[in-house]
Specification:
The complex is a heterodimer. Chain A is mainly β. Chain A is built from no helices and eleven strands. Chain A has strands at 4-7, 10-14, 19-25, 32-38, 45-51, 56-59, 62-67, 72-77, 86-93, 100-102, 106-111. In chain A, a hairpin with a 6-residue loop joins strand 4 and strand 5. In chain B, 0% of the residues lie in helices and 51% in strands. Chain B is built from no helices and eleven strands. Chain B has strands at 4-7, 10-13, 19-25, 31-37, 43-49, 56-57, 68-72, 75-80, 89-96, 103-105, 109-113. In chain B, strands 2, 4, 5, 6, 9, 10 and 11 form a seven-stranded mixed beta sheet that branches. In chain B, a hairpin with a 5-residue loop joins strand 4 (31-37) and strand 5. The chains are: A mainly beta, B mainly beta. Chain A binds chain B through residues 1, 31-32, 34, 42-46, 49, 51, 89, 93, 96-105, and chain B through 30-31, 33, 41-45, 48, 59, 92, 96, 98-100, 102-108.
Chain lengths: 112, 114
């Protein structure tokens, strides 16, 4: 069945450094890839997304890249701040449907 | 984006009982879903709540255990039936307004079964 792998499971960076989280997916028909941030005890919130017809998207300090050939996509956070500390989930659409399969999550710690 | 009210926020229940979780959206939405998130784990789709018809369940989830209602485009309920400690988890509703527009999640219901 469809699968999304996410690495690393935990990531610690110094404040001001960059963080990169990587995901791979198995369904070649996936065409939408959202990223969610979940702070402790709170709901997941959509922070950025990318569609299959785009290779890169940027929103201030956050960027996402997509390599459809290799079936992987990545989240890049630059100039990290303590408030970036959270669990980040990648997801991929199941084919062209509205259903997503989520990665296993990355716990990001930004050390002040 | 849609504003979602999910109730209750948490509950402690006795095994063998049932709990109904409500999800109210401030606008009509095309898609509503129910997810489960076990402590420290990822999000697993339970089912798609279909307005006016039976929900569509994912592998490993059945209607008898997780009956879902969706009487209109702004409201849905998920019932966790005949609960056991293994059902202890966070249950989240989510809504989408179109394919490839991302979901908005409710605040979640933290369920503990004792």
């Amino acid at each position: 069945g469809e699968n999304v792998e996410q690495h690393p499971s935990t990531l610690s960076v110094q404040e001001g450094d960059s963080a990169v989280i990587k995901c791979t997916y198995s369904d070649s028909a996936s065409n939408y890839f959202p990223w969610y941030k979940q702070e402790l005890g709170k709901r997941p919130q959509l922070i950025i997304d990318i569609r299959s017809n785009v290779g890169e998207k940027k929103d201030q300090r956050i960027a996402v890249t997509l390599n459809k050939t290799a079936k992987h996509f990545s989240l890049h956070i630059t100039e990290t701040q303590p408030e970036d500390s959270a669990v980040y989930f990648c997801a991929a659409s199941i084919g062209g449907t509205y259903k997503y399969i989520f990665g296993t999550g990355t716990r990001l710690k930004v050390l002040a | 984006s849609a504003v979602i009210s999910q109730k209750p926020s948490r509950d402690i229940c006795q095994r063998g009982t049932s709990l109904t979780i409500q999800c109210q959206v401030d606008s009509q939405v095309t898609m509503m879903f129910w997810y489960r998130q076990q402590p420290g784990q990822s999000l697993t789709l339970i089912a798609t709540a279909n307005q006016g018809s039976e929900a569509t369940y994912e592998s490993g989830f059945v209607i008898d255990k997780f009956p879902i209602s969706r009487p209109n485009l702004t409201f849905s309920t998920l019932t966790v039936s005949n609960m056991s400690p293994e059902d202890s988890s966070i249950y989240l509703c989510s809504v989408g307004t179109g394919v490839n527009n991302g979901y908005t999640f409710g605040s979640g219901t933290r369920l503990t079964v004792v």
